[in-house]
Amino acid sequence: NRRFALAAHPQGLPTPQDVRLETGPVPAPGDGQVLLRTLYLSLDPYMRNLMDEVGPVYAPAVPLGEAMVGGTVNRVVASNHPDFKPGDLVLGNAGWQDYALSDGSDLTALGDMAEPSHALGGLGMPGFTAYVGLLDLGQPKPGDTVVVAAATGAVGAVVGQIAKLKGARVVAIVGGEDKRRYALDELGFDVCLDRRDPDFAAQLAQACPDGIDVYFENVGGEVFDAVLPLLNIGARVPVCGIIAHYNDKTAPAGPDRVPLLMSAILQKRIKVQGFIIFDHYEQRFEAFRRDMAEWIGSGALKLREDRVDGLENAPEAFIGLLQGRNFGKLVVRVGED
Ligand code: NDP
């Protein structure tokens, strides 16, 4: 069994040395346990926060020397659990390793799902995040201007496509020309800007002549700076993530801008709301599953995956994710089915 353990807390952007590849025997399942072989490992931005010494408030940090955590699609290899049998395909949390044990409580049967890796992307946690954040918190109305960055990524691509389905005008933001073309030609967004263009803020103002009604916050940083002056009275800002800051070691340079932010929220009556998707499964996952199945089945919504081969390549792929090198939902193919 191979696994990546956390070797050091990253100082800024993680390096390959912050995780360590270890090999050991394949574990044997005890009473009530299931032995899982990982087929696909999901790589997600939140993992960066779990690598810090003090983790985020919503989840425990990964202790040094322990396996990196992560959502996975697994094949059951052996089972001492009444609900699972060898050969079953399940969604689990095996982390960055070939094999893992589970007591079954965190497993979801996937049946004979055609594209099981989508259970880690558009049909799973990131897609659900887009659905709840946009529809429940963003509440787009027909004709609204919706702005979303990382707009070809796991969450952002679904946000933009659902916004289009709801009749909104979508102004997408991405890093790079290949992503920009894809957002316009394949995803059908109305405008797509490159956040790295020197005059990006001016381009955004020009692309939003009626202001911004919904800003789905995925990134923070310079994108948020450009968005803030354009927000309309009564705008909604679901705060999903601020990936531009996950590697920050110090406070940003320049003057304190909190008063500017707070007075904009006050004067324009902006609704800013953070959310963590774990809270919403019980209430909303069924509706999400139903709607997504319909949208994907009818071709109204497309999913793009960025698939990397081999567990050994997970660290580089993860570092790339934090720099925008992924193009679509990032998954690692760990084992042959
Ligand atoms: P993505 O597939 O979108 O990949 C991350 C993307 O972020 C990159 O491809 C890049 O896109 C963009 N990015 C990276 N660095 C920067 C930067 N410095 N400034 C601006 N953009 C940057 O990842 P996900 O869809 O999985 O996650 C998107 C966001 O949603 C993250 O902030 C994540 O933490 C958050 N999230 C929150 C959840 C919640 O429960 N609240 C659940 C799931 C995700 P590009 O090159 O196009 O700019």
From TrEMBL:
Matching CDD domains: PGDH
Domain of life: Bacteria
Key words of the record: Oxidoreductase
Annotated transmembrane regions: none
Domain Enoyl reductase (ER): 14-332
Phylogenetic lineage: Bacteria, Pseudomonadati, Pseudomonadota, Gammaproteobacteria, Lysobacterales
The protein's name in its UniProt record: NADP-dependent oxidoreductase
Protein species of origin: Lysobacter yananisis
